[in-house]
Amino acid sequence: MNDPVTWLGAPRQAAQQWLKADEVTAYAEHSIAQYAAMVGQLADWLHGQRERHLLDARTVDLDAFLQGLQGRGGKPASVATLKRYRSLMGSLFRHLQVSGLRSTDPTQGLRPLEGRLVSTERQAPRLLSAAQCEAYLRWVMAEPEANWYELRDKLLRCLYLGTGITVSESRALQLQDVQPADAPQWLRIRHAGPARHIPLPTWCQEVLERWLPVRHKLEGTGSLLLPTRRRAPLAGTRGRSTAPDDDPAAPLGQPARTAHDALPRPISTSEIYEIVRPAMQAAGFDDEQQGPQTLRNSFAARQLLAGTDDEVLQDWMGLRTRFTLDALRRELDAQSQRTAQRRPV
């Protein structure tokens, strides 16, 4: 992964080797493929537009690359896409510098994203259609539960669509925020004011009931409902983890004893996105906004279509105004009109 010849001639392969050997983050296979493709796109652009490569790229080159990034339909890339590329480039060039393949990190002088030209037109809220929601749930429920973190991931995917909670709220959830003996079950969201209580749909309750006994047996992980996991180095590897991502973990209900282990820390935001993106892709949601916010919008849209009162929904979601709900109504109306236009006459 530190071979300059590979970085020059096969940057995608070099990026894959680098990401697989990362000692801090256990990247999922689909994330490795995605990030390697992004590195490859940058390398191709540098070669074609600037006659440069990753090992001699300048700050001005990276600025121009970000400025020229395009999204769907040839429109300027979204801020979310720019942030993903910016974050990846930061990690990439720090690695190249630490490895001795570069003397400097060209990302240090990049202009702030806030200073870039982005569309001032407010984008319509992204959400899954009714059919995509059903496909999302089918995929989630069919996923295996062979170890504790697969069951945790399944619950997390269910909570985003079933309750509309935010990333920060999901990371802060405590064991005492769910009461399995209640009927119906509610999820408690604590914040500065009075706590909010969101009802759990049946399909979410069922996953939660399977998760709680497993969670209680993960020793030394505090009171977090959804703790993170680590991939610990194996003996004889000089601190480098060589355990594959599909290493078997501890059986359900037992503390992890293999290379994968639970930690008393919240799941990182990047890991959360890695957890939900495959489910959204499997549901046919082919959009840049593959993340919890789109699932939150989808939760709200499902409630609006079911006739849930605005004030009740605002309370569940912690919304101070009806702005978000009104925007979702407009998008639902627009989707309905587009569907009607596609029908044969």
UniProtKB/TrEMBL annotation:
<keyword id="KW-0233">DNA recombination</keyword>
<dbReference type="GO" id="GO:0006310">
    <property type="term" value="P:DNA recombination"/>
</dbReference>
<dbReference type="InterPro" id="IPR010998">
    <property type="entry name" value="Integrase_recombinase_N"/>
</dbReference>
<comment type="similarity">
    <text>Belongs to the 'phage' integrase family.</text>
</comment>
<feature type="domain" description="Tyr recombinase">
    <location>
        <begin position="123"/>
        <end position="342"/>
    </location>
</feature>
<dbReference type="InterPro" id="IPR002104">
    <property type="entry name" value="Integrase_catalytic"/>
</dbReference>
<dbReference type="InterPro" id="IPR013762">
    <property type="entry name" value="Integrase-like_cat_sf"/>
</dbReference>
<dbReference type="InterPro" id="IPR011010">
    <property type="entry name" value="DNA_brk_join_enz"/>
</dbReference>
<dbReference type="InterPro" id="IPR050090">
    <property type="entry name" value="Tyrosine_recombinase_XerCD"/>
</dbReference>
<dbReference type="InterPro" id="IPR004107">
    <property type="entry name" value="Integrase_SAM-like_N"/>
</dbReference>
<dbReference type="Pfam" id="PF02899">
    <property type="entry name" value="Phage_int_SAM_1"/>
</dbReference>
<keyword id="KW-0238">DNA-binding</keyword>
<dbReference type="Pfam" id="PF00589">
    <property type="entry name" value="Phage_integrase"/>
</dbReference>
<feature type="domain" description="Core-binding (CB)">
    <location>
        <begin position="9"/>
        <end position="97"/>
    </location>
</feature>
<dbReference type="InterPro" id="IPR044068">
    <property type="entry name" value="CB"/>
</dbReference>
<dbReference type="GO" id="GO:0015074">
    <property type="term" value="P:DNA integration"/>
</dbReference>
<protein>
    <submittedName>
        <fullName>Tyrosine-type recombinase/integrase</fullName>
    </submittedName>
</protein>
<feature type="region of interest" description="Disordered">
    <location>
        <begin position="229"/>
        <end position="261"/>
    </location>
</feature>
<keyword id="KW-0229">DNA integration</keyword>
<dbReference type="GO" id="GO:0003677">
    <property type="term" value="F:DNA binding"/>
</dbReference>
